[in-house]
Backbone:
């Protein structure tokens, strides 16, 4: 939907964005008292197609196994909303959108946005839908940052919050990896200072963006996962070629990750979203005291981390949990044993499924909503 | 020195390289029975200037504090040799050298070399110097791989071996990071398929090589080191700029690492040397059995790792130690507590200094060479 010009999105930078378009998907039905809404927040390179085919890639929803009728996030009971983040490239206003002042794509004239801006845009949609309080906000990675921002910025509007595989701030190492990606994009002469939209479908900084994706992708997997998946196995050959072809399967896999990414993602959007993540620091927003950020928050939290996630480590999740406890908050914490690295949150991890199911059922009981007992096919093996 | 055409370097690939030039530095004097020689093997982007100013950068030797008169590697007692690796860009034959068949720089026509080839070239120099057995071979990171290759390929010619912060093979994650760097270089149109030497001093793939260096540099530091050094501190400003300038100090630091690197390193050499490291797998060279690689090796080993090194982890060092034990080898192992990451081997880590001193003294006694007692200023605080 597109909000009228007199309903701009007010950004943390002080700038405003109008008209604001938000691309979103919904699943299930909003109940009569509008108490069964769940917002799912997506990660950096994902989109609003959480449980439906992505029309661009033709691929199934990125959390298809989690969201749907009879699934853990049960669309027979919950009304699920997933909004493409502002600054992105899935249909919401972003750097590839038309700048009304020029009639041309924004490019790098697009204002820098923050995680809080992404959430503020979602609030506009929730207001539009007439929903006072969300039953839950759920998300992994950058989605988890939005979950935290939701609870902190709108403490009365979120009953339950499930931040998964995420952090309350972007560490120096995380910023460093993002900066490598941005420099890879900007080093590509086809980036043209961000003004590449006239160059046709294949005219953008494809090589630079592919390199950025390759570097980032390494951080999404654990060393153990890479070793298990590929080790030093060679690609369709018995011995090394003494050359620079992709001798090793892991090289071929990474190249494929890079090449396919550029077909589905806008390079400028990658710059803007990584910047938003780098800027995220809930503690700094509250004079360096993370606990202060959570002061007065009534939301029930379920924080989930994965042992082998080195991008957003369990240590960072524990810091969130400690701050919530210090602020008198209500929090459950589950560290899940997995060697799959950061991307474990996108996979059918049985312990994550069981945790989500138990927590959502308990919160549903709080709110007088139906529980999973009504849909008997739910469960770890469901 | 340059070997005559009839003394080519025979490579693992089956190709030969002639004439072979080796650039090297020596420190101290070879004793009468030629029993006091130490070869120091350098890491990926380092060079032969281990303890003397680098004429290109004007910077002091990269292990100045370790190597010199009265230092731990005491040039009053030992004859220290450090050779620029073949395939590099410090004066030894590499892709920027003239291909005698064409009279032009080799570029990517240069043959792919391996860690074993690097060592084989060093053996030619050692033979030329008339040295039968080295007292010790010492090196960190890729230097450590050469140390292992020395001991395995020339089991009678190395009395003591000190591989530091290294591994017996390049893991999938390590290959992945190198592949990102190579793709960053190759994505730069100024790379021109490796044929950029005519383009003048500033004509190479500077942007791509800088991105490669930035990505690699992250892997040389631990997350803790990055957090301690930079955290989320801003660069000369009180608040973020809402832009893509280097707001954070860590961004500025990484950009500086990238920019300064391209002034001192040849992009093609970076491709060739990373490839050599990726190909390194001592176990695969011996039917997958690392212990078999060490069968019959008489060398005394001192293996050193650092707790926060995630590039070449302690687990990999332990695998080397176990294989040496299984092969009946003689090995000491020290895991040093440090939060400085992989690059700790380049720093004055007191425990590393003490370990090296103790091990070298014991080996000097084996060989009837003077010990550090003769140079009383050596020690942890020396």
Residues:
């Amino acid at each position: 939907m597109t909000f009228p010009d007199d309903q701009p999105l007010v950004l943390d930078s002080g700038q405003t964005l109008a008209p604001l378009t938000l691309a979103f998907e919904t699943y299930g039905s909003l109940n009569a008292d509008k108490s069964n809404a769940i917002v799912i927040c997506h990660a950096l390179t994902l989109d609003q197609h959480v449980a439906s085919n992505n029309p661009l890639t033709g691929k199934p929803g990125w959390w298809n196994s989690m969201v749907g009728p009879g699934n853990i996030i049960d669309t027979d009971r919950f009304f699920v909303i997933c909004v493409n983040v502002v600054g992105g490239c899935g249909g919401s206003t972003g750097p590839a959108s038309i700048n009304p002042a020029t009639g041309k794509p924004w490019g790098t004239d697009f204002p820098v946005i923050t995680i809080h801006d992404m959430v503020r845009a979602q609030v506009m949609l929730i207001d539009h839908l007439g929903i006072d309080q969300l039953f839950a906000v759920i998300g992994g990675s950058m989605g988890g940052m939005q979950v935290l921002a939701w609870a902190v910025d709108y403490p009365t509007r979120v009953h339950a919050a499930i931040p998964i595989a995420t952090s309350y701030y972007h560490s120096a190492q995380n910023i460093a990896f993002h900066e490598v990606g941005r420099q890879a994009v900007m080093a590509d002469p086809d980036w043209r200072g961000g003004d590449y939209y006239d160059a046709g479908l294949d005219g953008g900084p494809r090589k630079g963006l592919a390199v950025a994706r390759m570097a980032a992708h390494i951080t999404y997997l654990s060393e153990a996962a890479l070793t298990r998946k590929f080790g030093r196995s060679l690609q369709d050959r018995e011995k090394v070629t003494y050359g620079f072809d992709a001798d090793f399967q892991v090289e071929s896999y990474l190249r494929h990750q890079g090449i396919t990414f550029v077909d589905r993602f806008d390079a400028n959007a990658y710059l803007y979203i990584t910047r938003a993540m780098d800027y995220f620091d809930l503690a700094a927003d509250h004079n360096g005291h993370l606990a202060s950020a959570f002061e007065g928050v009534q939301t029930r939290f379920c924080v989930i981390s994965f042992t082998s996630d080195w991008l957003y480590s369990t240590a960072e999740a524990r810091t969130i949990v400690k701050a919530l406890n210090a602020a008198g908050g209500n929090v459950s914490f589950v560290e899940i044993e997995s060697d799959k690295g950061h991307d474990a949150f996108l996979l059918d991890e049985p312990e994550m499924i069981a945790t989500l199911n138990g927590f959502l059922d308990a919160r549903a009981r709080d709110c007088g909503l139906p529980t999973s007992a009504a849909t008997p096919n739910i469960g770890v093996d469901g």
User: Anything to note?
Assistant: The mean pLDDT of chain B is 95.
